[in-house]
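Quick question about two entries, pasted in order.
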Amino acid sequence: MVISKGSKVVSILILISLVSGYFLYPNLVQSFKPNDKIAVTSIAVLPFVNMSKNQDLDYFTEGLTDGILNSIAQLKNLKVSARNSSFQFRGKDVDIHEVGKKLDVEAVLEGSYQVDGDRVRITAQLINVEDEFHFWSEQYDEKLDDVFAIQDKIA
């Protein structure tokens, strides 16, 4: 049986890939665990943005933000910026880095919601103030029949 030079090269490349994958895979998996704990000691919860056509739902902004803020404030070893401090940014396009500096926090939780009939879609993002990259982001599609459960789920 005659093996061509091209076949040898392909075989060697496959072997190198398999060996590399064997050693690198555990490190890659470990570095991308979705449930890793984030080392944040201070946070501000900005008012969620109403992206619905119905502006009468602005009360939902306050309730949602307050509920999340209150739940997060229960966590030990986490400083949470006061509601009044965070609400000064309501309705404004803000630079996360500036918010962090002004409120002296390491992370900012921001989000938005849309309501359609009896359904709500809430998007929440936890952002690192220093580099403005997301630590975490999640979207929730829920029925509006239990707003408190939605708030607890996000918190």
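Here is the second entry:
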Amino acid sequence: MRGIQSYGPGMVVLLAAGAALFVGPLAVKEFVHAQTSVEIVQASTRLQNTNNILEQINAVQRDIAKLVEPSVVHVSTESTMQRRSLPRTYVSSGSGWIFDDSGHIVTNAHVVDGADRIQVQFHDGSMRDAELVGLDLRTDIAVVKVAAGGLFPAKRGDSDDVQQGDMVYAFGSPFDFRFSMSSGIVSGLGRTAGPAEIDYQNFIQVDAAINPGNSGGPLTDIYGRVIGMNTAIATGRGNTVGQGQFAGIGLAIPMSMIENYVDQLI
């Protein structure tokens, strides 16, 4: 009995210490959970605030899409080539944009070069046959024409006002995902990198995603005005530039150059 009494106080201390060790972490866990719940509610309330700058950006970008998409087209081509003395039909595609109410559409020369048949698909899914008006391989600019009527010509901006850091939006049909939109910024101006066959090189460099199929599509500013035309991609393979997959560097022909050559081609 005396031995038990001597151990009694010690056991009480041990039990108390064990309870503290067990209850302490639970209390801390409950406190952290409660604090996180409060932070979640506060964050949700702030995000629902009508002054949420991200929602304003979302709204602007949705409006840019609604403004620009009706002027963007998907360009499909068919061409016949001799292969082992047998004619074979090749199908390719790219993008373009409506230049005016008369039915003129601007695209890249390499998209329609050598085509026997050109078809244009509009944002509503309708298709029209197009005829080649003219192309200039040195600048990679081409003009095709469809029947006038029911068209939404793109709004045009001034590429001379473009500055490094400006937000831009690229439209087109990357990998045949038609009427897609990507965003980025102007990474540089006056770039000379580009396909060797292009003589005139004064590209706008952007980091907006540009992939095969985007060629000929419009590059717009934050007001939905076309400031350039997507034309080439730096693939990252030995610093080559052409029509490979996006590697963070896309090149666009500036509008100042496009308008000059398009008017001549028409």
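Reply: Residues 1-5, 237-243 have pLDDT under 50 and may be disordered. The longest strand covers residues 86-98. Hope that helps.
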